[in-house]
Amino acid sequence: MSDEANVKKNPVIDEIELKEWLASLDYVLSHGSPERVQYLLSQLQIRAQESGVTLPFTLNTPYINTISKDKQASFPGNRDLERRIKSIVRWNAMAMVIRANKNEDGIGGHISTFASSATLYEVGFNHFYKASPTTFSGDLVYFQGHASPGIYSRAFLEGRLTEEHLTNFRRELASGGGLSSYPHPWLMPNFWQFPTVSMGLGPIMGIYQARFNRYLEDRGLKEKDDHKVWVYMGDGESDEPESLGALTMASREKLDNLIFVIHEAIRIHRFIKLTGMSVDTNLAEQTFHTKGAGFVGNDRNNQFTNLFITKKLGYDANVGHGC
């Protein structure tokens, strides 16, 4: 009979034993530190392995926040105002796509992509993306191609686009000017910086862009600064071979200037920062674990913005793990 079967036959003993172990853990946490707990658990694991105990192996981590609530920074802006702006942007994006399809059947458009990732973009616009004044090279953002309606909608509120532009969504050659289906610097050179469609182009281009920026800095051709390369992609897009094909290079080169924002359409809700550290994730979790992705994540019960702004991604982003 297996040891597991014996444990199940003694539920009272099992419960008492478990309570003793948990109480010991709580004592170390309250009188010691998380680092002390890590040390003790690692020593227990070593002792068990030396004694021939086969431990379960998994690369999947619990669905909990990487950063505990007491370590999350206070939101620096006006949450009510920013939520109102986000709602307007999301509504206008939906209205633009629907109106375009009423005017010309079959135009298409992607409503759900931006609707499910609007918070990620708005927090980025309001608190993270940095422009390029004379003393700073500026951040580079690879917007997810299917989220382009939301980017157009925000640009309309900012006065960068006219109502006529929105009316001519996906008809960029229309009289008075229109908008391309996806990010397209050739069709809209004064608006888009990078093409990110077909799916998978944005992630692999972002990785190589971050590497090239480091190359320029290392050779004195570009001043070193705190610029970031942001890459937005959907969880489904991660299935494209181009999306994850260069992750090992990002880890090898220690591209801490590269940030992946992966929003959940079906499977995951992740925020991943690529560094030289190896951590667990759950977006094909084994892939990011072996490719050396540092990770910050949250569960569905918390406002993503709380986590997004925590010390400007600086708090243990290279060693965190979770969901």
Brief summary of the model shown:
α4 (79-103) runs antiparallel to α5. This protein has twelve helices and five strands. It has helices at 3-8, 11-31, 34-50, 79-103, 111-128, 148-157, 163-167, 201-218, 241-244, 247-252, 285-291, 304-308, and strands at 140-142, 229-234, 258-263, 270-274, 293-297.
Explain what you see.
The chain is α/β, with parallel strands linked by helices. It folds into 2 domains: 3-50; 69-313, Rossmann fold (3-Layer(aba) Sandwich). The protein has 12 helices and 5 strands. It has a 5-stranded mixed β-sheet with strand order 1-2-3-4-5. α4 packs antiparallel against α5 (111-128) and α4 (79-103) packs across α6. Mean pLDDT is 76; it is low at 265-284 and 298-323.
Number of helices: 12
Q: How far apart lie the N and C ends? A: 37 Å
Shape: elongated
Helix and strand sequence: HHHHHEHHHEHHEEHEH
**Tell me about the biggest sheet?**
5 strands, mixed
Rg over C-alpha atoms, rounded to the nearest angstrom: 23 Å
Kindly report the name of the CATH homologous superfamily of the largest domain. Answer: Thiamin diphosphate (ThDP)-binding fold, Pyr/PP domains
Low-confidence stretches: 265-284, 298-323
Helix content: 40-55%
| SS-based class | alpha/beta
Strand order of the largest sheet: 1-2-3-4-5
Tally of DSSP β-strands:
5
